[in-house]
Amino acid sequence: MNEHPINYDSRQALNHFVHLKQNIRMFGMKVLSLQSIMQMNMANTELIKKIEKKFGRELRYSQECEALVEAIYEETGERLGISTLKRLFGFVGQTVTPRISTMDIIAQYVGYPNYDLLLKDMEKDSDISAFSPVDEIDVAEIQTGTQIQLTYDPNRLIVMTYLGTSKFIVNESQNCKLQKGDIVRVTHLAVGFDLLASEVVRDRNNLGPYHAAKQGGLTSLEIII
Fold it and tell me: Per residue in 11-39, is it b (16+ CB within 10 Å) or e — as a string?
């Protein structure tokens, strides 16, 4: 079943570990849920509009984040890091999902008690797409029945539904060796990383591991809601 032989060297393993570590966001003993990450991604544009409306002007330059930090502090009594706001507005580095405590402070700045209430209000006013792009999925965080669409080069597409216990059933497969009805076991998916399944079961026959997207990794990853 391998599109390419599985052959991890120590550098690949280390890079994968660092990527996972950098994308885990802990606050107390609570981890930000996949649903919250999806909602943050979908609502980010609307949230930025609300921040800029409260601030009184559009933020076009990264230097303006310093003034925004002070404005948030004056309004809430809480001080956010300048780099946090720069990442939120896409001025520097890779866009990441902020801590929920950060989002609560931002919600208070624009007039809401917490981020959950802000999000619910934005959902009422927004036309949210049925496809929610994400950077990565920890399978342990998703619910049974969740549908996922992923793509990789050249022109590969897979749609699959989560069955539980790290297993997915393939609903659609374009230009790759997986077939509709295959059961695949996957524990983690991330844009830019290979697609690795520890096993593929077809017609009750275990075909072994599956390794794809080795050249460049997954190009897109979406939750279908």
Answer: eeeeebeeeeeeeebeeeeeebebebbbb
What b/e readout covers 123-158, taking b as 16+ CB neighbours within 10 angstroms?
Answer: eeeeeeeeebebbbbbbeebeeebbbbbbbeeebeb
CA distance 204 to 200: 10
Under 8 Å between Cβ of 72 and 109: yes
Torsion angles phi and psi, residue 148, rounded to 5: -130, 135
Confidence at 168, pLDDT banded by 50, 70, 90: very high
Q: Is the pTM of this model over 0.70?
A: no
The CA distance from 184 to 110, in Å, is 44
